[in-house]
Amino acid sequence: MARSVTATEGGERLPETFYKIVFIGNIATGKTSIIQRYVNNRFSNSYKSTIGVDFALKRIKNDNGSMLNVQLWDLAGQERFANLTSVYYKGSHGAIVVHDVTKQKDLESIRSWKDDLDKKIIGHCRSPVPTLLLLNKIDLRPDWLTEEYSGGITNSEYITLQCKQLGIAQFYLTSAKTDDHNIEVAMNSLYELIEKDPNTKLDQAIPSTIDLARSEEVDEESTSSCCKS
Ligand SMILES: Nc1nc2c(ncn2[C@@H]2O[C@H](COP(=O)(O)OP(=O)(O)OP(=O)(O)O)[C@@H](O)[C@H]2O)c(=O)[nH]1
Ligand SMILES: [Mg+2]
Predict the structure, then answer these.
(1) Where are the alpha helices (DSSP H) in 57-204?
(2) How much is the mean pLDDT over the chain?
(3) Mean pLDDT, range 158-169, rounded to an integer
(4) Residue 229: inside a domain, yes or no?
(5) 137: domain range?
(6) CATH number, position 184
(7) Residues 14-37: what's their mean pLDDT?
(8) Fewer Cβ within 10 Å of end Cβ, the chain: N or C?
(9) Would you state the pLDDT for residue 206?
(10) Band (10; pLDDT cuts 50, 70, 90)
(11) Residues with CB under 5 A from ligand 2 (ion)
């Protein structure tokens, strides 16, 4: 984690916090749409596939006036097959896996994405990061949770078990299309998990090399004692 300070008008210096969040999931599940809704409150019905990776920044003012800067990394769904995800995951503090509820066959891919994430994060000498699952396009299948998955098991039961097995903290029903989209609720809960994550705390406990006279960032990469890859 990188931290810096911001001077308020009154001269008070408040810490700024930076989180890197990676959005992963199959092609056209709605990753870009969710980010667009979250950052710009916009939605488009047209589909333009992301090439490689895209970025967005969300600045959130905490109750005490300090700033949370969230860097949202929007990975193209096809990237899992391009062997580049490791580079994108590096230094992330949290992750969002997006599933499209209209594509029942894609349910198997949730595991593939989470496994890919964990394997490569561990490869960067970091414990798995707090991860949420967004079950997106719920406007198209509002009853999806109670529908049958297979053999008398509901989607709700299946997905609850999957999250437990895969180490996904929580799932949320989202829609990037509708106003009542649940995206902000999910993002806020991810920030809480990141804040509580012992690894995040470890990053924050790095001896302060912040020059309080200037607003200066301390990069995690330059302070980590772990292997570099
Ligand atoms: N009805 C509905 N359509 C959605 C929703 N989210 C995204 N879409 C549509 O789904 C399509 C794909 O959305 P994107 O956000 O581009 O998907 P993506 O996951 O970023 O796709 P890649 O970049 O190819 O990985 C677009 O046509 C969107 O308009 C949603 O919540 N509801
Ligand atoms: Mg995209």
Answers:
(1) 85-89, 107-123, 155-166, 183-196, 198-204
(2) 85
(3) 98
(4) no
(5) 2-6+28-203
(6) 3.40.50.300
(7) 94
(8) C
(9) 42
(10) low
(11) 31-32, 50
Rounded distance between C-alpha atoms, residue 187 and residue 59, angstroms: 13
In whole angstroms, what is the distance from residue 98 CA to residue 163 CA? 13
CA of 37 to the centre of ligand 1 (A): 11
H helix runs in the chain, sequence order: 31-40, 85-89, 107-123, 155-166, 183-196, 198-204, 220-223
Q: Is the pLDDT of residue 96 over 90?
A: yes
Question: What confidence category does residue 225 fall into, taking pLDDT thresholds of 50, 70 and 90?
Answer: very low
**Probe residue for ligand 1, chosen from 23, 27, 32 as the CB with the greatest number of ligand atoms within 8 Å:** 32
Residue 150: exposed, middle, or buried by beta-carbon count in 10 A (0-12, 13-18, 19+)?
exposed
* Nearest protein CA to atom 1 of ligand 1, as residue: 137
Would you say residue 77 lies in a domain?
yes
In a domain, 114, yes or no: yes
Which whole-number Å values give the CA distances from 15 to 2, 7, 66, in the listed order? 10, 9, 6
Domains of the chain: total: 1
Residue 18, domain member (yes or no): no
Q: CA torsion angle for 83, 86, 89, 90 (degrees, to 10)?
A: -150
CA 65–ligand 1 middle distance (angstroms): 34
